[in-house]
Amino acid sequence: MCDTSLEKDCIMKRKYYSCIYRVSFLSFLSSIYAIYCECYDLAPVPGGVFLTSVNYWRRPTYGWRRNLDMGYVTCAVIYQNYRAYYMTSAIVWWYYFFMFLGVICYPVSVYLYKKKDLWGSTYVHCLLHVLASIANVLLYHNRVCIIS
């Protein structure tokens, strides 16, 4: 976490980013659930999101950690959506629904941040993590994650 003297370099104050830091741990639980459901090829998706998010939100500044987080999340969502496309269960559409809602939260969070509504931005970004984790659990619960 940003030390008080270094907090001036952070994109927001600790009271905001610490919420996002904490909710990032949901991705770790999604990764564990993927392993439990034998979705071994998908477990690194939320696992990597967990690592890059925690790495970034412990001290959110512009730079390589932010770029790594955003780049990994983009690639992870593309890969997971591609894999979901080939799954046959009807629950996959619920996965897409919740993932869509989660992805929509990102530009809303950025918009609120630019409007200086930092609590709104924080809550919407946290909601992104919650919705994406729900989507992940729905997808992994199928237990049909064998690469075709």
Describe this structure in words.
- It is a single chain.
- The protein is mainly α and 148 residues long.
- Helix content is 70%, strand content 0%.
- The protein has one domain (7-141).
- The mean pLDDT is 92.
- The protein has six helices and no strands.
- It is globular and about 50 Å long.
SSE diagram, text form:
Elements: H1 14-23, H2 26-36, H3 44-57, H4 64-85, H5 92-114, H6 118-141
Helix pairs in contact: 1-3, 1-6, 2-3, 2-6, 3-4, 5-6
Helix content: over 70%
Q: What is the distance, rounded to the nearest whole angstrom, between the alpha carbons of the first and last residues?
A: 42 Å
Instruction: Estimate the strand proportion.
Output: under 5%
Number of domains: 1
The SSE string, one letter per element, is: HHHHHH
How many whole angstroms does the radius of gyration measure? 16 Å
Count of DSSP-assigned helices = 6
Mean pLDDT: 92
Number of strand segments = 0
Question: Which descriptor suits the 3D outline?
Answer: globular
Could you give a quick summary of the protein structure above?
Helices cover 70% and strands 0% of the residues. It is an all-alpha fold and 148 residues long.
Task: Tag the structure with descriptive keywords.
single chain, 148 residues, mainly alpha, 70% helix
